[in-house]
Amino acid sequence: MSSISKILDHNKAFVEQSRYQEFQTTKYPDKKIVILTCMDTRLLELLPKAMGLRNGDAKIIKNAGAVISHPFGSIMRSILVAIYELKAEEVCVIGHHGCGMIGLQSSSILEKAKQNGTDENLIDTLTNAGIDLDKWLTGFPCVEESVSNSVRLIKNHPLSPNHIPVHGMIIHPETGKLDLVIDGYNSTNLPESGKRGCS
Ligand SMILES: [Zn+2]
């Protein structure tokens, strides 16, 4: 049986047995926070449990590496929607040790795309059209720097309200231990670009 068939079978029973009732809540985050974190599978249940979060407590935005690639892309838009429309009052960027985006090279993805049928000429066409595939598909050297960059981008965004604290954290993907690396309550804590290097 395919994964989707199993999911749909589970879902039928879940709804029929009213197991959704314990999850009922509103669209507004009870703990008034919005979290940007990584899509890593190890964090699926670990991160909310390690933070004591239940359904309804927080807005959680996920992508590969908890990276904001563009100040006017969908991640930053989601953070602004959480703040202005959904009453979030604090932002947490949470990277993790052992992230798949650490040291990721664009060549690795482009090579696999070619092996899966992407025409090399198409890659050249995209590059000639000004799409910087290398930059887009390259990860980061270390999680500390990545979290720091995301925090700085959110804090300095022209549409971010000044009073909203933006915290930077790193979670251990096995123990769930959280380290606060940037304390958003103390804005003088915000490192300048490139100041929080990789150890
Ligand atoms: Zn990750």
TrEMBL record:
One Pfam family this sequence matches: Pro_CA
Cofactor: Zn(2+)
Keywords associated with the record: Metal-binding, Zinc
UniProt-listed SUPFAM superfamilies: beta-carbonic anhydrase, cab
Database matches in Gene3D superfamilies: Carbonic anhydrase (3.40.1050.10)
Catalysed reactions listed for this entry: hydrogencarbonate + H(+) = CO2 + H2O
Lineage, highest ranks first: Bacteria, Bacillati, Bacillota, Bacilli, Bacillales
Family: Belongs to the beta-class carbonic anhydrase family.
Protein name: carbonic anhydrase
EC number: 4.2.1.1
Details of cofactor binding: Binds 1 zinc ion per subunit.
Gene Ontology MF terms in the entry: carbonate dehydratase activity; zinc ion binding
Binding residue positions for Zn(2+): 38, 40, 96, 99
